[in-house]
Amino acid sequence: MKKTLFSILILVLLVASIVVAPISYADPLPNQTLFDEINTAYATYDEGKATLFGYYFDGVIEVNVLLYHESFKDTNHPEKNPAVEVMTHVNQIFVDVNKAVNTHVEGSDVYNFNNAPSGATISISDHTANLIKTAKMVYSATNGAYNPAVYRLVDLWGFSSRTYMMRNLGVQHGGQPYDRNWYRNDDGRYSYPLPDQKYIDAFKQLCDFDKVILGGEEGRYTLTKSCPDVTVDGVSYGQMLDFGGIAKGYVCDLIEKYWRENGYTQGYVDCGTSSFVLLQNQTGVSFEVGLQNPSNIALVYSTLRLKDVTLSTSGQTIRRYTTDGVTYSHIIDASTGRPANTGIVTTNAIGATSAIDDCLTTALTVFTFDQIKEFYQSDFVRENDIKCIAVHKQDGVHRVLTNIDQSEFAPLQKGFYFSDSLDDGLVKKVAIP
Hints:
Elements: E1 9-12, E2 32-35, E3 40-46, E4 49-56, E5 61-68, H1 82-101, H2 109-114, E6 121-124, H3 126-141, H4 151-156, H5 161-165, H6 168-172, E7 183-184, E8 190-191, H7 197-204, E9 212-215, E10 221-225, E11 230-232, E12 235-237, H8 247-261, E13 266-271, E14 275-278, E15 287-293, E16 296-306, E17 309-315, E18 320-323, E19 326-329, E20 332-333, E21 338-339, E22 344-350, H9 354-366, H10 369-376, H11 379-383, E23 387-394, E24 397-402, E25 416-418, H12 426-429
Parallel strand pairs: 24-25
Antiparallel strand pairs: 1-15, 2-3, 3-4, 4-5, 5-13, 6-10, 7-8, 9-10, 11-12, 13-14, 14-17, 15-16, 17-22, 18-19, 20-21, 22-23, 23-24
């Protein structure tokens, strides 16, 4: 779950800024299309350009889509403008994937799985099957550092949408025995009491993603929940899945496939400010991509020039709270049952597919510094031509660990250093303000 109103990757468009529809959802203008099934979004058509702006996946994922093409000419007669069909198709991709994997939509595949008893087998859509296949591939490649079966722990620690987005309202309606009441610290920020260890120990047993069994074939896939339930204080809890760490990237991949099959080569998709497809900009060259400073999200610490790539980003700067002086963030380490705490504060993955990139940015946050170095040398990274960036923060020093040639980065800002070792002496060498 990587949701924020600020981009962890800040796109600096060299030729044109993003032009989106107004946020006030009035009747659409002649050059607009309003989409309001599950989501609220506008597509706007201008000379040679089409944009889509809106909120999807329970209305909490902000989406910006921009596509350039010379055929997008007649903005006042939608029936003559191919951009209308393109953006209608893009919107439908979001709607279809949401219906398949939204945790909270009754009747979705994920909802049905999460509410099924242990041992049950359910029918699932091709979308869900594709996500399961990719998730299992990355789960294996990262030794479980990426794991969509951690949802019980995500909810326990207060990071599910039910609790984090709705606070005490979510606790009061459809609550669980392990729920606690949110409260405000002296600084006015929300805090959440820590969970009992008995729940952590029990819910760790529900994180075995190998016990999620995919069966069937295209058009007739099934999913079996073979993980046994656990019991705490007489209450049984079953395994639950959450595809918040991959679904946005999967949507980006579907849009990219559709665009390329139809000859579109200039534009981008920004889904939730964490999952991206970058084609080429309006003049057919690269976008300049700013890498956000995890210590000051209004700034960037460097930039890269990218085109014709997928990418994803994650970080410990969003969906977090501080309790008893310790900050906890939303990415859970299934091996400990606790929020990841390795010093990795922001991660980026480029290449392969956006869905794989999504999974990897989660895994990189769970990995230790040395595990990341080892992962960069893996067959999985090499065979999929994946480029990664992980920033480790210690005593004000930001170490940038990457398998991208350093010459491709703009000069790093003060406080950031390329390094492949925590024993590089930087903390002692650098004067910390």
